[in-house]
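Minutes, project check-in
Item: structure for the 456-residue chain
Input as provided by the requester:
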Amino acid sequence: MSKQTKYVLDEEQIPKFWYNIQADLPVPLPPVLHPGTMQPVGPDDLSPLFPMSLIQQEVSTEREIEIPEPVRDVFRLWRPAPLYRAHGLEKALDTPAKIFYKYEGVSPAGSHKPNSAIPQAFYNKEAGVKRLTTETGAGQWGTSLAFAGSLYGLDVEIFQVRVSYDQKPYRRAVMETYGARCIASPSNETEYGRKVLAENPNHTGSLGIAISEAVEIAAQRDDTKYALGSVLNHVLLHQTIIGQEAMLQMEMADAYPDVVLSCTGGGSNFAGIAFPFMGQALRGGPKPRIVAVEPTACPSLTRGKYAYDFGDTGHMTPITKMHTLGSTFTPPGFHAGGLRYHGMAPLVSHVKELGLMEAVAYGQRECFEAGVLFARHEGIVPAPESNHAIKGAIEEALRCKREGKAETILFCLSGHGHFDMAAYTRYFEGDLQNEVYAEEAMAEAMAHLPEVPENV
């Protein structure tokens, strides 16, 4: 095994195709349903929100979908992203395991999110769209779409979850620097936002509420579409360039992962790193363990129900089968804002049900402890979301130490934490607690799942 630390691909090795795991699944994904008819949705049902090119990607079962050359040209700004061998962390843990991480924080927005923001903006621009609306939690997706909108001359309006809007003013400033308009959600700018505020003027917001507001605005104008940063099939598809690059880089390192991990909120960076490896296993290749790491305060995979549910709190979206805590569930305001979503991507939920992956959950204090250890030995200050992946990787490495196994661990370091230093300050001051969701609130939300006919 080489002592090399960094594995870098040439720009010409940026993938030319996105990988679609739906082509290799042993059981097809359950259909998306129209909430009014409870029948599978068609392209016309989605056209008020998305351009046809993205709708086609959403429903495609083709294994490879070509990445437009203009999109690959933009990707050259930061892709291929580097793969690192975590020699420092390995030494600190005194583990026989080999730890690698794919670092997505090198993008202009500081995370993996531009991998989908750029193609979404590109396809909308091609379709003649003038304005995009979206939601954001931590601000990574909002920043990425703002950046993409600036490249393609699109107006971007971002509904940011109120608690993150207040926690992360500098992330908001970056969105505004790129030319986007950032609005705290719930807001007075939409009918649904006003309804929420009338019931609770101090509502901290949720991704489900912010999605409802963004969808409401997009549906009102013909020149406006909606863009989503996770959960949907086409978003997960766009992120698979992470895993495809990682495969080539692991070959450079003369290694192959025994374990692949990532943090998981909506599922985008998890699918990005995991699906290419999972697909190779489904086609008869090596079968690494695939592990999703989520927060204990919003544990959709480990505590949620696999059922049909709305993707938003206002019930304006189609309903999908996913692991859910209930669309009206509002998670507590822990700092990993990108992981505060009530549901999991239908594709991630489906492969979990098929037994192709595992899921674990950790509290935010232990995740920040892992992130600080990582920073002190690898030099990168991780985003709070990414700390969950690091915690999962450390636990796997310590297991290898106990068992005397020299396994290879690969995780996705989805972004840096340069705009999250207030959270680190709270951690060092001993003020950062493990947030706990209210069991009764989750039970209440779960009691209101939509009723779907048994034959669906």
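Outcome recorded: The mean pLDDT is 94.
No further action items on this chain.
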